[in-house]
Structures are given as C-alpha cells and as structure tokens.
C-alpha cells in the first residue's frame, strides 16, 4: 500500500499533469459494507478551509486518485460523478454544497485494480451497497508545489514515519504547506516567455 503512493505510471501522469514538483497531501481508506446507503454528491475542494479537513483541501489545484481493489459493480457501491461540474462558476457549484441526487449523474463501474482520477472541484459520490460483499477503496491526494493551502496550518508529517518510507515514496512527502506561487510579479516581468503549451487551446483540437 505504501509503494502504491509512488506507483510509477501514476506519478508519470501526474508529473505531466502538474508540470511541477508533486506534493502528496492526503490519504484515506474507505470500506462500504452491504447496506451502506451511499454518499451524497460533494466535492473534495474546500477553498477557504473547513471544520472537517482544516486547510489541507484549500489548495487551488489538487487531484484525488481512487484505487479500487474490488470490482465496482452496479450493485456494490459504484462511483458516481456529475461530469464537468468542476467547470461551473454558478453558486450551485459552490464547493461547500451537497446534493442528494442529480438527473445527470453518471455511474462508473470498473474492474478490481482500477484507478479513478478526479479534480477536487468535481461533484461525486457513490451509490448504495446493495450487494452481499464489501467494497474497499484507497484515496490519495496530490497537488503541484505551486498550489499550496491558503494558510500554512496543515499538520506536518511525523518525522519518524517519514524515515520509514522508501525513497521513491519519500520524495513525494514534501512539507504539505509548500507554496511556490508568485505574488510579487510586475506587469511585465523580465522572464516572460512566448511559449506555454499546457494552456494552449490546440491541446483540445481548437483553433
């Protein structure tokens, strides 16, 4: 499970996605037993902090990676998502809202061993467990170093625990308050460039 944090194909994807140092932020284990009622639609991004998560989910950019060691079937707590909801700027898309259901909700099923990657602003949840077995999930949170929490109040990792991690995993465990954003730039900084592939519409086939 520890090695999974630095799973090479996932880290390679995240390095391309972020273009910056990866900072590992959160981990969560969840188990859905038969009869579990499901989880309401919510987001994992809380831009001003919250009583539940403190400031660890206040980062402007973060993704959650959900690993499923069990099959996700329609009967056993499948994942559900409201596609593109993270793109809305409306009050209904406030990261602090929760919804019981939505007519455009999409069920996601997948074989055991699958990983789901989601933006923390997208509305998601899971359906009830109407089957006869449990369903487990490991959730890992990552972000780029430039996008730190709004307050440097995220608890530090325990140094004794960090010393036990293998090197490929340890390098992802930077200070969770790391924040490399720039707030002192001029209108025309001397190091401006004319190239920025990762914000180009061409990436999506637009002209």
State the order of secondary-structure elements, H for helix, E for strand: HEEEEEEEEHH
Numbering strands along the chain, what is their spatial order in the largest sheet? 1-8-3-6
Query: Gap between N and C termini, in Å?
Result: 44 Å
Share of helix among residues?
A: under 10%
What does this structure look like?
This protein is mostly beta strands and 207 residues long. The chain has three helices and eight strands. It has helices spanning 8-18, 159-162, 167-170, and strands at 22-32, 39-42, 63-68, 79-81, 106-108, 114-119, 124-126, 135-144. The strands form two sheets. Strands 1-8-3-6 form a four-stranded antiparallel β-sheet. It has a four-stranded antiparallel β-sheet with strand order 2-7-4-5, with no helix packed on it. It starts with 7 loop residues before the first helix and ends in a 37-residue tail after the last helix. The mean pLDDT is 94.
How do the helices and strands line up, and which of them pair or pack?
Layout: H1 8-18, E1 22-32, E2 39-42, E3 63-68, E4 79-81, E5 106-108, E6 114-119, E7 124-126, E8 135-144, H2 159-162, H3 167-170
Antiparallel strand pairs: 1-8, 2-7, 3-6, 3-8, 4-5, 4-7
Main attributes of the structure:
mainly beta, four-stranded antiparallel beta sheet, 207 residues, single chain
Outline of this structure?
The protein has helices at residues 8-18, 159-162, 167-170, and strands at residues 22-32, 39-42, 63-68, 79-81, 106-108, 114-119, 124-126, 135-144. With 207 residues, it is mainly β.
